[in-house]
Amino acid sequence: MVTLKMLKPYYIKAEKNFVRIILAYQYFSVMMNNKVFQFIPVESNEIRVNRRTEKIENIDAVFAFQNGKEIVNVPMVKLITLPEFLEQIEKIAKPYYFSTQDGSDLNDKETIDSFMKELERKNILRLIDKALDERDETRFIELTDVLASMDKEQENSP
Fold this sequence. Notes:
The chain is of the alpha+beta class. It is built from four helices and eight strands; from the N terminus they run ββββββββαααα.
């Protein structure tokens, strides 16, 4: 039996019709037979969600997971049977859908600006994580300064 342990996107790319959730090593893991298997980008490395229908499009994708020397392949069709997997995908992709719950359209400039700022912030946070992983103190300081200035700018805006 497969259960989701963790699912965080490495980065998210919103295209015209799709939201591409790109996955990386330490951001996606599952539990099988009481063992944690970490995602490895051997076969598929993304989840593609249609922005209009809000459905996963690449259901033929197969994801590879590794625990030590043991590698297992889990097809998307198996993952989409897991409620926690679908909940995470919905939570990740929802801001990029064409229509929001209140029925308003994402063409509103203010809403787009807000989404862009949030995406920029998430990307800075991921780059900070990467700098920490690589123990790059200079890059870490630069990025935290950028993040601090973004936060300060947001506080000062109406």
